[in-house]
């Protein structure tokens, strides 16, 4: 984790340096340019507040001329809108579904009786 972070951070530093040097090239190559993943100030894609943003890549399918193509879409989200996997799952997925609860209750009863 630490090693990865360090490598990531130095890579981002190098990238943002490169970005500021040839910002004009960047404009032209916008579609192919890689987004630095380091947090930076900007407008959140979701809540449109100015905040410290992180970029998140998500795969999206687009259909053009009847042909489906997969592309990577980068979204800039603030801390509040960021998909934090654990919190996300906790909020949206119940700990157990009803069947599981029933089964658990049943086996618990069996154990008691
Ligand atoms: Zn937001």
From TrEMBL:
It comes from Fibrobacter succinogenes (strain ATCC 19169 / S85). Residues 19-40 are annotated as: Disordered. Residues 22-33 have a biased composition (Basic and acidic residues). This is Uncharacterized protein.
């Amino acid at each position: 984790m630490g090693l990865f972070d360090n490598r990531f951070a130095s890579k981002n530093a190098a990238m943002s340096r490169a970005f500021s040097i040839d910002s004009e090239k960047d404009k032209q190559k916008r579609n192919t340019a890689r987004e630095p993943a380091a947090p930076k100030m900007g407008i959140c894609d979701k809540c449109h507040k100015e905040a410290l943003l992180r970029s998140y890549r998500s795969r999206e399918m687009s259909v053009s001329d009847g042909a489906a193509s997969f592309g990577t879409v980068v979204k800039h989200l603030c801390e509040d809108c960021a998909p934090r996997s654990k919190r996300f799952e906790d909020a949206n997925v119940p700990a157990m579904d009803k069947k599981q609860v029933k089964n658990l209750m049943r086996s618990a009863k069996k154990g008691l009786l």
